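Sorry to interrupt, but I need a hand with the structure work. It will help me judge whether the discrete encoding reads sensibly. Write everything out right here, beneath this request:
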Amino acid sequence: MTKIATALIAVLFLLAPLSGCFGSEEVVEEEVVVVVDHNTHKHPNPKLEALLMDFEGEQFIAGNVIHPHPMEVRVVWTMLSADGISSGDNLATDINGSWRFDFDVEDRSENITITFRAHSLAEEKWSNNLTITIPANNTVEDEDTENNNDNSTENNTEDGNNDSGNETNDSNNETGVNSPPICDAGSDLNANVDQELQLDASGSSDPDGDALENMSWQITEKPEGSTATIVAGALNQTANATITPDLIGNYTIRFTADDGEYLCNDSIQLEVEEITTPSISPATITQILAKGSVMTDITFANDGGKHIENWEVSPELPSGINFDSGIISGTPSEVLEETTFTIYANNSVGSDSSTLRLTIFENSYAEDMAQFWLDFFQCQTNEDSPMVDDLDTNGDDNHQCEVSITLNSTHVIITTNGIPNHDFESTNACTQGNDCTTAQNYEWSIPRNPTVDTTGGHNSNACPEANGDYQCAAERGAIAVAINGVPIYGPEDGPGGDAVAAEHGAFVEDRQPIDLGICHGHNAMGGTYHYHADSNCMHWHPETGENIKDDYDMSTPQAVAQNTYDGNHSQVIGVAYDGYPIYGFWGYDDDLNIVEMKSSYELKDGETGYNGIDDYQYTDGLGHLDVCNGHFGPTPEFPLGIYHYHSTMQNSAGEMGFPYFLICYHGEADQSSSGGNGNGNGEGADCSGHGETWGPGIGPPPEGCGGGGGGQAASHENPVETVVGNVLQFNPLALVLVGLVGYRPGSKIKF
């Protein structure tokens, strides 16, 4: 008997349970199906035994599974060699738990390491790893076999494949028995065809601190026809590698390493898609920032194209603002006038771009509005007050607007003569009655620090849609003052209809002739020029050869708004009695795009505006503005946001933009100190015959009926700060009151 035969008999005796695994493949075991309720019938983890066999020139590994139901167990394996990594699963076991692993007997210059693991299918339980090393030579001498047998026995013991179970494992850990390493191939990847990718398994580790050996990368799955390969450093030296996919599809990439005893592996998925030109959004964005305040991040998203390779911005962003991977962030540290930046997203196919309009302001008006009004009110000196003409008179009138501003501790006191800073038309009161525009003596007291009105419970007769939540503006007469010192009136005309709607032919005004003239302005009795809508004429500057009478287009509401559009946010045009600013037609929507601001009021069914306020209803969300015709948001001067009103000429349905300026006050307003409000007692007066026996061009109204102009102002006992050339001087000032009789508040005259 040969030494090999003797050794084989000994092995067969030691591994009696493996007796079925050494026969020829012609021996077929009949599979016995065992049905077990694993919810109530629990078993320990499966265990493995195995030996490297050399029998009559044939090498193989014979193994056995230790488990009450061995046919429910499958054996998986991973083999590491100089040629790379291979793996398989579901080595079948017979009824006795025996299994066999065959491999080719060839000349080998290096050892081959195979790691086995048993898997209980029903219970999802795993055995410990069992590692077998196949020597480099093509045959196995007896002493090698014996060594391997010894190694296998040691492995089995270390894996806990004995009756002591966890107790053995605990004992081994305490005595420093080796633990398997942990492989980490990194995160799944997305890429383009022909894009070089970095593979990084540097997150792999060994619990015992052992150095990882035999590190290797392998493509285990790739699209049909792909010839992509992995370029890696020398075996045992690096956890990094590169791959350049050559076809669209999915790739599976595996990383393997060992600690000299145990093997680990981890796989990642690589998805390769067709590269297309990027498509980024938003296409245009406007941002108003305050110097020294942290901005909200601006993120540009890739909506359509694949795989942005790099981002660019031109010109360079101002200091304090960063741009990284399509995100703009930071804290601006310098002031910047509106500047256009272009954001580029690029890849190998093409690029797409977005536009950023960026403005950075000093946040100088945050605490006190006094300086704001000092900066923006016109006509404070003769130098910035042009000579203007009433186009309804003969010859040049050489009118000149005058504005002076004084301050006390709580209010801005604005004194004006009511003359606009542009050519104008007095209209009917002048042409029919020679009561043309004249200089007035108006005075308004405006809060330096506007405060939101949270009181509620207000009289809502003049603005029923506000439901008493806010204080109503006067039905007729002044409700605000323009920055050139001209009173701003509400939407109603003398008879009680919608003055602006009548001007644009929405209905026939058969009670009293209504002519607003250019800029939607005219004068009432006493020469009191005022606006009913669109005061942006003060910002309209005729080109050479033009004049406001012939070239300012007021033919349609759309034309009026377009007269002031230059692509930017409108300038401030006035201040309401609550201290909040009024801007022109153009403002920022919720996305900071510059749009024509639209009123949220619409005509009630069957109405035309003939009955003024009563013909309109507020519909939340119809336009951009709230029930008072304002909203909270940024403006060029208040990048962090402020409540403000807008003049409007349309609603979102294309109807008239009632109430044109405002109809109630979002903030706390003191209307008793207003100038030119046209409000009087009028109690019990007989006001019949308006437009027939009295009116513009006919004669003055009866006492107590009012004529749509004039007003009153209150005195101020506090010492004030006199402003000369925007320099504050402290002097007592007796403020002059001028009052003209007007309509009784809350009343309407209708015929």
